[in-house]
Amino acid sequence: MNSLLVVDDEKHYADSLADTIPWTTLGISRVLKAYSASEALALMESFPVDILMTDIRMPRMTGLELIEQARQRIPGLKCLLLTGYADFDYARRAIELQALDYLMKPAKDEQLLTAMGKIVKQLEQERSIEQGFRIYRDNSIELKAGLLLKTISGTLTGKALADKLKLYDLPLQIPGTASLCLIRLGSPFEGHDLYSQSLIRFAVTNMLEELLMERYDCWPAADDEGTLLVLIYDLSGAPPEPQWVQEQLERLKDEVRNLLKGEISAGQAECLFPEGLQASYMKAKSCLDMDRSLSGQLPESSEEEVHLMRKLYEAPLLTHLLEAEQWEKAEAKIRAFVSPLMHTGSPDLMRDVFFFLSNSFQYIANRSGRTLAQMLNPGQSAFIKGKSMLHASQLESWALDSLHTLRDKLGEVSEDHSQAIVRKTQSYIRMELDKDLSLTLLARLVFVHPSHLSKLFKQCTDTTLSQYIYEQRMLKASELLKQTNHKIYHIGESIGYPNTNWFIRKFRDYYQVTPQEFRDRYRSGME
């Protein structure tokens, strides 16, 4: 509720304003009154005041002077002026002091209620905004953590993700490069209660931020299993240096050991943000499990279980097969994952394999601009949303059915989309002939797997990517030879051939003459 202070040196008028107007209808619960500016300032020392309504002409201190002094004590104070004099200088000074209204005495009740209603509404809006900021400030860590988990799961992508990053003041570029680190509490922390573990994770996060702040920013979160996830990024957009990050993780282990008297394990992986987050999560998890195993923090597993977990990360990775649309090989790899589970009977191992498969599927779904739940049918997506997987045969059936659904849905991608990828690739090649034009780089620019780009380019242009690059370089070289006096070596460098002899050889293979002969013939009228 709001409080109002009425100030007027005419006692009867101040009493009338304070006692007879139905201020409670506007949400004003307390009305104070004073008969001088000095009395008003004294009241402000003892009671909270939201709104000041004052006469202007008063002895010893005017209402304008009162506002000026009151604002120094209560910066957000709202003010309304009453006066019996139509004086332009008063009005101008009232504007300078940011008084919200200026009424002539005697003001009608309706005028007062209307003016005060506007002031109360502004107060409520400001409080609502302030409360929103306070809630955000008090919960910003949790909100940002939830955003990272949603991004990794693939439930937030595209413009919605970009808007959230801006709202939470997370200056990551899309697409961009980052490093994803996973940290797991070891002995004796893993035996602590959940609240104590959360405090330990908070301390570990702060220690890591201090180690990284010299070069990088970070964005932390914790998943349902208590694993600490930290996305490390450079404000410049440059990829974090893996070796340096690894050195800081080793320093972190030492600090946790010395200061917190416990052990942690860590794993990291480079990633393309946000498309590659899920694949990087799986790779970092593999590194984390390896680190825990080497440090003796993992319980001993059977030789069969260890072999199966290693198989998950053997080349070619499942995500690579899916990217390249090698569906038969992907199906064979999935069967190789799941078949051994029929004999091990390990619920934890089955959960890990399900998690691995669902994340691989989610990654491929996100590349097409959709979530996995959007691409799968309701029965298949129920397991993604938490339905229990009871046995290995059910997992195998789900994985293969989901794979076939993904294959069919991804096959619906229009020919126009493929053409757009090829056109974008061709445009980049023509503009950057002097740059590295490796298949890996070009695929990264258009967000597809290298083998998939190679296949698309051949389908759409009836020529190979390398042949297209070669032809474009030769065409550009011929233009420069005709239209400029640049040296031969300079022309070679400008189209990506810094070795002059190699440039001459490639030019001769294409035109059957050397660059100099080509230029001479053109200028003599033979070309």
TrEMBL record:
Residues bearing the modification 4-aspartylphosphate: 55
Database matches in SUPFAM superfamilies: CheY-like, Homeodomain-like
Alphabetized PROSITE patterns for the sequence: HTH_ARAC_FAMILY_2, RESPONSE_REGULATORY
InterPro entries: CheY-like_superfamily, Homeodomain-like_sf, HptR, HTH_AraC, Sig_transdc_resp-reg_receiver
Entry keyword set: Cytoplasm, DNA-binding, Phosphoprotein, Transcription, Transcription regulation, Two-component regulatory system
Response regulatory domain segment(s): 3-120
GO biological process annotation, one example: phosphorelay signal transduction system
CDD domains noted in UniProt: REC_YesN-like (cd17536)
An example Gene Ontology CC term for this record: cytoplasm
Subcellular location: Cytoplasm
Pfam assignment, any one: Response_reg
One annotated GO molecular function: sequence-specific DNA binding
Annotated HTH araC/xylS-type domain residues: 423-521
Main location: cytoplasm
Protein name per Swiss-Prot or TrEMBL: DNA-binding response regulator
Organism: Paenibacillus borealis
